[in-house]
Amino acid sequence: MKKAAFIFLCPGSDPDKDRKVVKTEYMELSAIPVENYEAAARVAGELADQGIGCIELCGGFGIKGMYLVKEAVGDRAQIGAVRFDAHPGLNFESGDKRFDQ
Predict the structure, then answer these.
(1) Helix or strand (DSSP H, E) at 34
(2) How large is the average pLDDT for residues 74-95?
(3) Nearest CA to 32 among 23, 43, 41, 42?
(4) Cβ–Cβ contacts within 10 Å for residue 65, how many?
(5) What integer pLDDT is reported at residue 89 of this predicted model?
(6) DSSP structural state of residue 49
(7) First to last CA, the chain
(8) How many CA atoms lie within 13 A of 19 on its CB side?
(9) DSSP secondary structure string for all residues of 55-99
(10) How far is CA 69 from the centre of its chain?
(11) Which InterPro entries match (predicted)?
(12) What CATH number has the domain bearing residue 13?
C-alpha cells in the first residue's frame, strides 16, 4: 500500500492531535495541519523517518516554506505543492509573507 501525506497550514492546530488518515485499497493518506513552517519541517521529517515517500504541501506554502520542508526531508521523500500566490485560507497572503521573520 502506498503511503502519502498532505500537510496544510492551519492556525491553532496541533499536528499530533488533529491529523486524520484516509485508507483505501491502494493508498493511505495522512492529512496533517500545522501552524507554521517550523512545524511543517518537523512533521515532514518525522513522516520521512516513518517511510512516507510522498508529501504534498498546501497552497499556503510559498517557495521559502517548500524549501524549509525539503531541507528537513532531504532525499528521503518527494515534496510537491499546490500553488496560490495569495491563499484564501490565509487572508489572501502567501505563507512566505506570513511566516517571514
Answers:
(1) strand 27-34
(2) 81
(3) 43
(4) 26
(5) 67
(6) H
(7) 39
(8) 16
(9) EEE-TT--HHHHHHHHHHHGGGSEEEE---SSBGGGTTB-HHHHH
(10) 8
(11) DUF6506
(12) 3.40.50
Q: What pLDDT does residue 97 have?
A: 79
The DSSP line for 7-23 is EEE-TT--TTTS-EEEE
Domain with 56, as residue range(s), is: 2-99
At residue 36 the predicted structure's pLDDT band, cuts being 50, 70 and 90, is very high
Are the C-beta atoms of 44 and 79 separated by less than 8 Å? yes
**What global pTM score does this model have?**
0.84
* Cβ-based neighbour number of residue 94 at 10 Å: 21
16 is written with which cell numbers? 499530533
pLDDT at 15: 95
Helix or strand run (H / E) with residue 44:
helix 37-49
